[in-house]
Q: What sequence folds into this?
């Protein structure tokens, strides 16, 4: 029997490596989609390629989209990446690392590819616990996008397919994500999380993303296999 | 007083030239957005530039996005463009010129730029009369996207701005669009509509888009200023 295809958004981080294995475990044929969106460094995309190879995806598209043309975020401009923030700061307000409308853009492109592939299942590793300040990581946003997908596409008019945006991590803590991934055999040494690595790609250990990752591994009682500066 | 900014999607066609003038007439500062999305020819983008210059936009971004990476449409692949179709064919089913999820992708990118600009008004020249077969030209889709915009962005969380997707042409016939544009001084000789022009950029007069345009001018009782092959 032919397997159902799914489009999986793969950034190369810990979360996306985990959803890739969750989708594989659910029996989907994996069509991986990464974005070259003007990130400040290339290590993320290298990690995405490693993770895709290790998980046996059937195809991997790296889609160029220059969101840095618009600026507005520390991840796509030369605004400084915040370091050593306290936990209360991490969970208050919308951080400067928020990229305007990023997940809307990414999901739209996944929708375009999914419609061509006949893949009506899309996996995205959003998390509403750690990224509570990002509007486009909230369940309301995901539900809104799923409704829109039904209105936006051929499947929506012809009514023969139902789009499903899968967010298996949305309500999990970082340590729960890591435990789930380890149970599925994810090799986290292949992933990259740091917003501001050195020239060798080693993680800073101090940006929001590194802090959340390190805390997750500590709470899971497991060593992070990454090398830090 | 500072004028409110709007993002206007400008393809270079008749409809987008008209909405640009409608937005100018409504008093908006015009931020024009065009897409270089792997169209089969460049005349569309040249027309977009001409129209923007003539209308006095404050900025014009041509955003590269390679939707032809996925194929699936006659406009972005080497599928043949249909010619000389009867009117009944023009209005039945989803045409091969439909580009999967195109308007979702375009509006998402407009949303990203709008959020950076502080421009919460987006104009798009969709039409549900002539393009009744395109899922993403229907009012339900536009309303769905407007709801999503509120959920997807900083404005959606902070609640201080309301996104509005303007579709002033959605229920107008082509001749009514032309009459509205002419009343606002639109110079339609600057626009380009043909899906399959010759190497000099002259319109074929036979594809769906040319046929709709010519019928519109005929019904408006005005000569089309374009040169046809």
A:
């Amino acid at each position: 029997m032919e397997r159902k295809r799914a489009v999986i958004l793969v950034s190369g981080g810990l979360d996306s490596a985990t959803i890739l294995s969750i989708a594989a475990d659910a029996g989907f044929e994996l069509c991986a989609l990464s974005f070259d969106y003007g990130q400040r460094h290339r290590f993320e995309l290298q990690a995405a390629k490693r993770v895709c190879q290790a998980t046996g995806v059937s195809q991997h598209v790296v889609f160029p989209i220059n969101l840095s043309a618009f600026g507005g975020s520390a991840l796509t401009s030369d605004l400084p990446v915040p370091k050593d923030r306290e936990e209360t700061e991490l969970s208050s307000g919308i951080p400067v690392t928020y990229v305007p409308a990023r997940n809307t853009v990414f999901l739209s492109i996944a929708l375009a590819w999914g419609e061509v592939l006949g893949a009506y299942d899309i996996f995205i590793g959003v998390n509403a616990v750690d990224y509570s300040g990002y509007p486009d990581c909230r369940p309301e946003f995901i539900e809104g996008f799923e409704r829109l997908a039904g209105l936006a596409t051929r499947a929506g008019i012809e009514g023969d397919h139902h789009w499903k945006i899968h967010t298996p991590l949305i309500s999990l803590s970082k340590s729960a994500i890591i435990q789930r991934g380890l149970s599925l055999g994810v090799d986290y040494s292949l992933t990259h999380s740091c917003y501001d690595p050195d020239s060798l790609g080693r993680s800073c250990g101090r940006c929001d993303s590194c802090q959340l990752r390190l805390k997750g591994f500590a709470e899971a009682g497991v060593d992070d296999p990454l090398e830090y500066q």
Q: What stands out?
A: Chain A has one domain: 5-220. The beta strands of chain A are 5-9, 29-36, 59-64, 121-123, 164-166. Residues 6 and 121 of chain A are 5 Å apart (CA to CA). Chain A has eight helices and five strands.
